[in-house]
Design brief:
- About 20% of the residues lie in helices and about 45% in strands.
- By secondary structure, it is an alpha+beta fold.
- The protein has two domains: about 1-55, no CATH class; about 65-100, no CATH class.
- The strands form three sheets. The protein has a three-stranded antiparallel β-sheet, with no helix packed on it. It has a two-stranded antiparallel sheet with strand order 1-2. A two-stranded antiparallel sheet has the order 3-4.
- The chain starts with a helix and ends with a strand.
């Protein structure tokens, strides 16, 4: 029985597993936690910046929304309630898209 323990003691030690991710076409060794984070967000959501792996900034889109503005011909409302249009005439209001 002691020979089994000697044989087990002489077994080569297991090397820790290495984790790699591909960012910007380069394979980089990272920790397990960082690899799981990158897998969660997707490799294409990351970039290399000064040798570090960082999330790409989210693009800021210009917001567009409709706003009630005065125009040449438009709606006139009862008691300024937009749910009760009274008539369509000159100087009324219409819904127009405005960009910010």
């Amino acid at each position: 029985m002691s020979e089994i323990f000697k044989a087990l003691a002489n077994l080569p030690k297991r090397e820790p597993k290495k984790h790699f991710v591909t960012v910007d076409g380069k394979q980089i060794e990272v920790t397990l936690e960082k690899k799981l984070e990158i897998i969660t967000h997707g490799e294409d959501s990351y970039m290399l910046e000064e040798g570090k792996i960082v999330l790409k900034p989210t693009p800021r889109l210009k917001s567009k929304f409709r706003k009630l503005l005065t125009s040449e011909n438009g709606y006139h409302f009862v008691d300024d309630d937009i749910h009760w249009p009274e008539k369509v005439a000159e100087g009324g209001k219409t819904w127009q898209i405005e960009y910010e």
